[in-house]
Design brief:
Membrane topology: Single-pass type II membrane protein
Organism: Phoenix dactylifera (Date palm)
Subcellular location: Golgi apparatus membrane
Pfam family, one: PMR5N
Helix content: 10-25%
Distance between the termini: 31 Å
Strand order of the largest sheet: 1-14-13-10-5-8-7-6
Largest sheet: 8 strands, mixed
Number of helices: 10
GO molecular function, one term: xylan O-acetyltransferase activity
């Protein structure tokens, strides 16, 4: 992996302004910015390679607690004290990779330009496309970002087939659970399959915490459930979740689980919402006035441990498949792939060609913490490792070519770098490849 100096690059005033804007605006649109920090050199040479399967030896997913309403959250945590159960530093080990079923690591490979087979669908013909991800509709002039295929080094992926996917989903519920990045993968999946479903045999429910696309002739559904912090939190409303203080109930997951527990195939993600740089308040009991306060890594560990307890005690591997999607990279700092520059993904039209490239948007301590939890879950969870393959795709973000819900100032409009979205992904694009990987595991 490419190494970087410990010394931080001096940031210009416009980059400081950019950091503030990215954090505040992305919260309003189901998005979170990552901590702006170049990777420490002690972490830059080793990246964890997630095994395919993962195991936990617990049996209690937690006791059911009363559900908090908006007024309850607003009264909680009037003050806070430091969380005492901080995580230990993660040892820097080279994780042992378990191979895919045929001995091939499908997550290690390269991008191949393929303007014959890709894109897999047309942006304008998918009626369920999101304005946040429809880059062509919002003025992006180039289309090359849509025409790349992922090629593993030692094997071939089975090519995408929408009809075959629907046959695999016949009589089943496929549910994506997580934040706006997982929502983007859900929209990608819907756009990938909807064209082979008759117009009068498909439908989409109104946008809500749980949104459902139905393919009636297959008795199948592809669903998205908004749970950006996995456990219950004051950010669980899919629209109104912008708060100065982020509060979670670290051991409360049953309200969410009641929505997803009957699904046949579950696809979880969790990362960016823990990376705001601000402390997260831990509400252990609904009547607590004084809460604990933890950094994002410690809070995420508590939440994922609660989730893992639920998986260990509640998932029946004979009936359900559970996937965990690793962190989606950001490309906020062009100095990481072009030293001396001070931009981001704005105007980027080419891929990063340095194999093993690893940007600061993918935190290694977080990856190792996640792996330490997933490593105890055995065959109950399959991992879709999107991180490394997506790191190369600095060209794939919406940048300025998307709908922004907040009003942009003249100063921002004069400086596109200051508001470019380098977190989410254009569709058609990179998330389609994540779903191709998922298709190969179904």
């Amino acid at each position: 992996m490419k190494k970087w100096s410990r010394k931080k690059t001096q940031l210009s005033l416009f980059l400081a302004f950019f950091s503030f804007f990215m954090f505040s605006s992305f919260l309003n649109d189901h998005r979170q910015s990552t901590t702006r920090k170049l990777p420490d050199s002690k972490h830059s040479s080793v990246q964890p390679s997630f095994p395919t399967y993962f195991t936990i030896n617990t049996s209690n997913p937690g006791t059911k607690k009363p559900v908090l309403g908006a007024s309850d959250w607003s009264k909680a945590c009037a003050s806070a004290r430091s969380y005492k159960g901080k995580s230990n530093s993660v040892m820097e080990n080279q994780w042992q990779r378990e191979s895919w079923s045929d001995g091939c690591d499908v997550f290690s490979g390269r991008w191949i330009y393929d303007n014959i087979s890709y894109p897999l669908y047309d942006e304008g013909t998918c009626p369920y496309m999101s304005d946040q991800l429809a880059c062509g509709k919002h003025g992006r002039p180039d289309k090359e970002y849509q025409k790349w295929r992922w090629q593993p080094h030692d094997c071939n992926l089975k090519r995408w087939n929408a009809t075959e996917t629907l046959e695999k989903l016949r009589g089943k519920r496929l549910m994506f659970v997580g934040d706006s990045l997982n929502r983007g993968q859900w929209i990608s999946m819907v756009c990938l399959i909807q064209s082979v479903v008759l117009a009068d045999k498909k439908s989409m429910s109104p946008n809500a915490a749980l949104t459902i696309f139905r393919a009636e002739e297959y008795n199948a559904s592809v669903e998205f459930y908004w749970a950006p912090l996995v456990v219950e939190s004051n950010s669980d409303d899919p629209v109104n979740h912008r708060f100065d203080d982020r509060i979670i109930q670290p051991d409360s997951i049953l309200k969410h689980a009641s929505q997803w527990e009957k699904a046949d195939i579950l696809v979880f993600n969790s990362y960016l919402w823990w990376r705001s740089g601000s402390k997260i308040k831990l509400l252990w009991n609904r009547d607590d006035v004084i809460c604990e306060e933890a950094n994002g890594l410690d809070a995420m560990k508590l939440a994922l441990e609660t989730w893992a307890d639920w998986v260990a005690s509640s998932v029946d591997p004979l009936r359900q498949k559970v996937f965990f999607v690793t962190m989606s990279p950001t490309h906020l700092w062009s100095q990481e792939w072009n030293r001396g520059s001070e931009g981001n993904c704005f105007h980027e039209k080419t891929l990063i060609e340095s194999e093993g490239y690893w940007g600061s948007g993918s935190d290694l301590d977080t990856m190792r913490m996640v792996e330490s939890i997933l490593d105890r879950l055995g065959p109950k969870v399959l991992v879709i490792n999107i991180t490394r393959l997506s790191e190369y795709r600095k060209d794939g973000h919406p940048s300025i070519y998307r709908k922004f819900w907040e009003t942009l100032t003249p100063q921002q409009l004069a400086n596109p770098v200051s508001y470019a979205d380098c977190i989410h992904w254009c569709l058609p694009g990179v998330p389609d490849i994540w779903n191709e990987l998922l298709f190969n595991f179904l």
